[in-house]
Amino acid sequence: MFRSPSHPPPSGPPRGRRFRRTAPAAAVAVAAALAASAALTVPASARPRHPSEPGKRPVATGYGGAVSTVDPYASRTALDVLKHGGNAMDAAVAAAATLGVTEPYVAAIGGGGFMTYYDARSGRVHAIDGREIAPRRMREDSFVDPETGEPLPFGEAVTSGLGVGVPGTVAQWELALDRFGKRKLRHLLRPAIEVAEEGFVVDREFHDQTAVNEERFRDIAPTRELFLPDGKVPAVGSVFRNPDLADTYRALARYGGDWLYEGRLGREIVRTVADPPVAPGAARTVRPGLMRPGDLDAYRAKLRKPTHVSYRGLDVYGMPPPSSGGSTVGEALNILEEFDLAEDRPADALHLYLEASKLAYADRGRYLGDADKVDVPLGELLSQGFAGERACLIKPDEAAAAPVPPGSPDGRYGPCEPARGAAAPLTREGPQTTHLVVSDRWGNVASYTLSIEQFGGSGLTVPGRGFLLNNQLTDFSFEPPGPGEAPDPNLPGPHKRPRSSMAPTIVLEDGRPRLALGTPGGSTIITTVLQILVNRLDLGMDLPEALNAPRATQRNTPQVFAEQEFIDRYGDELRARGHELELFAGPPRGVIGAANALEILRPGLVQAVAEPERRGGGSALVVRPAR
Length: 627
Hints:
13-stranded antiparallel β-sheet
């Protein structure tokens, strides 16, 4: 059994939890598990003695399974799992664990995420919810400063214990593997442990993300120690190692999720949240959080029914509440189904895309929240009757003045029913997330978005553990609505999940996977996924073109925010219709999303696609490349 003076095992035997596999108690079982994990990693003789960055390619086409992530180490991990008999779920979890090493500011076991998964055996798409929950003591006004009666400044809420939700990633991994995996978590953590120990080559993206966070990282003692070695931002081309995270993963492999949700690691997380480890002399106000050990004990990852709409004869599946991704993408597609989007008139199609997004975001703000805690009219929001009523409001040659009011998904739909009421403000969501897609030789497909919210999450590193905690609770609305205003479904509450925009999406054709895609980007996730679908399914682009095309996002705001190439290419025609275009502020400035996707070109032949340039580009790999 694992022993360390600073990291002792949980006291007493684990009680065992729903969807959490407990670790074996005997040392011989641990040794056997570690031996078995070797089958999922590259032999030692084949690994370089010193870490070197694997090459990146944005497109790979071939057989036997495929993967696309933002990071070449994570993609290589997933490919090794596929080559050694693991399935798409195994590869997705292993890649996510590696991203926790190489992309620690967006992916960590201190966060959560959403996954859609096509299970070839049953022929069904499933949704797996690993979203964080608020502590039991959180209330509607928890983000209101009691001294001023005003909402906390957003930056102060982010870098605090108050914004930290109960992490869901580990429970999600165990649920996903229990239902759909072929390998155990303890096996799948080995590649990530090796990367954490041997190190990875710092690229421009890691350097820049660290630099953006440098000021606040210096104010949190364990974060400064880990991510600013020798007090400096790691240089591009240097090697970054994280032995603390390697030890944490090693203990997690031995003890399973109970070590986090009931054991020593959970108590350390709570202590970090309740008493943030601010560096001596730091002037920053870092508020304590409300989390207690019972909140971790209460956490459950959930298997949910995915959202589903039909579009151009295809079946589009997405993530249900508490994510707004599946419902908002689905509603916008239903609205666009009412129109002919001709590929020879792209500006006309993009006008309709922007107007459909505007309407769907109005409804998202009014009706979407955690459906376990509030009433979400999901069936009506995704009904074609409601979409037809909303589509009637779109003028082909004139943009509606935004923000537009929400509709009434009440089951009584007439022609061009005017919308009434006020639009909800767009809540702030960090654009710093990551996404991956995986397919395997059996036909299973995973689309997985994971996050700790902002770049660097809360900024709070659990001392000696090598990972940052999330700030996902800042996705809640910060103050209750005023008298006479419509209810807000996204107010904080005890054990409530904050609304998300994550939109891991799977598209079926005749019951079989055709596309899987997703992206980071906060509230722009929805529009990026929607625009890629429109590019691929309506505008005649192949998948690499659809992913690389310039982007714009309309989230029911007065302005359309766009990348410069989009403005240059379509700005004049869209301004003539009344759209006000501005460069997307980021971060990073002028860049919307960093998507990953795959397409089944024909049975057995798959194309994996990553960004060629955005955020440094991604990494697409296949098991057996096509000639």
